[in-house]
Amino acid sequence: MTDATTAADRFLRHRRWFEVGFWVVAVALSAIGNTITTSMEMTRAGLPHHPLEPAVWEWSSNLVLLALVPAIVLFTRQLPLHLDTWRRQLPWYLLASVAYSLAHVLAMVAVREAVYAAAGGDYDFGGWPRQMAYEYVKDVQTFFNAVLLLHLYRFVVRRLQGEASLLAAPDDDAPPVEPVDRPERFLVRKLGREFLVAANDIESLQASGNYVNLRVRGRDYPLRSTIAAIESRLDPARFQRVHRSWIVNLEHVAMIEPLDTGDARIHLKDGSTLPCSRRYRAALRDRAN
Asked: Is the pLDDT of residue 1 over 50?
């Protein structure tokens, strides 16, 4: 393994801490910087204000933004933008930017009113139509900056993880090395290198937006596909759908644990678990037996 690969693996193991930490630090720096700037501008303009007011305004706005980040992450994961889909998805993103701005403003004003009331004061947001238009101009920029940042980050993560693809049919009339409609191997590109992953080695598959993560020896390799499309191309004697978002390789199943809800929990031989919904539980039990 190269140092680059080792560093990438270390990052991927701790990526959740990095993601949370990034947003917390970014929002805190934005709140601190904006507080200082707003305070200086009001002082320079000779506008009367309490010294803590700029901090209340900026921290209320940024903390609400931080609370809305998970919603943006979920939205962009469910409707990711690609070169061949961005025109179709753009109207949904514009609508989402309006929803984001509305949620941001309402929550922000509520926090400010609560803080002012606790201090014995009264917060005046101003005329709502005019102020909402003003806030939306700022919020739409924040929303799409976050969208762009998330897509760039996911692009980098896919390169570090290794992105999987199906083996294509040859360009000439020669027969393919293996069946294209029932692949026995997947091509993975990782950090400029290519290698093959055998279908037998895939422990499970999980839907993630427009991708399906192939789990192989504890690593996830994203494949651009829907879970239904890839299910139709897997060997039904080996792979079983167990959830609307999961497919499992039966050879890697160690135990099926029934749950009181009627669902089940699947324990794999590597110690990991994945869900099985009641819709697929009977079929999985029959196949396992």
From this structure: no
